[in-house]
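pinging the channel bc i need a second pair of eyes. not urgent but kinda urgent?? the chain im working w is below, pasted from the shared doc
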Amino acid sequence: MDTILINDPRMTMVVDTSGLHSMMIRFCQCAGALSPDMQLFETSLFPASFTSPKIAFTFAVLDNFLLDNHECGTSAMNYYSKLRRITSSVFPHLVPDWYRDLMRVGRQWRQVKQLKWHGFGHEKRKPKAGELALFCPACPQPGVNLNMSDRNESDPAWLYSRSLVMDGNFKAEHLYPTNPTDEWH
């Protein structure tokens, strides 16, 4: 089978930890070839659009963004500003603004990682309510880490009760955003 390439390559913006790069990408058009978005996935690039990809984020930049966001509390805007400064330290304001794409792809990437971590990476069925929740080994879970037959009547009731909270600090201070346009972490 001969390889057939699109006659005109597409200009694609690739966002990496080393900055933003304009690249000419030719997609394979062989019979049975994957769609352009899937071809990008095969090369560790996450497309910002699945129908007509013009922007792609490397898996490395998405992992780095999630880590910076989680560990350092870096907002998406600050992270993207850093990428713009890495791309052009003298004129970062001239670097194209793909901030909204980073926000959307970052959320999709986080969801893909969650599905993978919870065993849904190779399953077609969608997770049911609560199946993506993290297991807390310290919380009493009947049948998992708590045998109800060993319970003593003299033990206090709170010892066997479950506590369901909105956050890990056992207080739901930030249940709703003060400004609906604010980003969620």
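so Residues 1 and 32 are 11 Å apart (CA to CA). and The beta strands are 10-16, 19-25, 45-47, 55-58. — does that match what u expected or am i reading it wrong
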